[in-house]
Specification:
The structure is a single chain. This protein has 152 residues and is mainly α. It has one domain (17-151). It contains 7 helices and no strands. It has helices at residues 19-35, 43-74, 85-93, 97-110, 114-121, 127-139, 144-151. The model is unreliable at 1-5 (pLDDT under 50).
Amino acid sequence: MDTSPVEPSPSKAEAVPTLAELSAAEDVLRRFLADVDPGRYPGPDAVRVLGVFTNLKRLSGAGETLFAKRVEESNAWRDDGDRSAAHYVAHKTGTTVGQAIATLEVAHRLEALPATDEAFRAGALSEVQAAAVTAAAEADPTAEQALLAKAT
């Protein structure tokens, strides 16, 4: 895995972690899951751990969506010989081409929906919620805030 630093925009240089830091977080999760025995956690602690994993899943979904779009835009997917960016994303993420298309559609709709984009990046929306909000808000942009209020 490439661990070279991500080149952030100069204005966000302090806030944007490097790819190495992101990979380190992945390693922490992998080590935790390798040896964890959920049965040893009391119920309230299990609830808290579930909450952490729920938040991580939402954040991971947002990252996957944002970077799937970047892979599409960059044409980097062509290097693997896939038929389309959606085929590449499906192959790399273990989903269907239809799901990959849906992910890319969400990413494109987010461009016109800044509040939804912010909520998704913050982990306030799951991928399913982001898809529903962006689809409905695309049809009626004036409804974005109300849709977000219901989803979060």
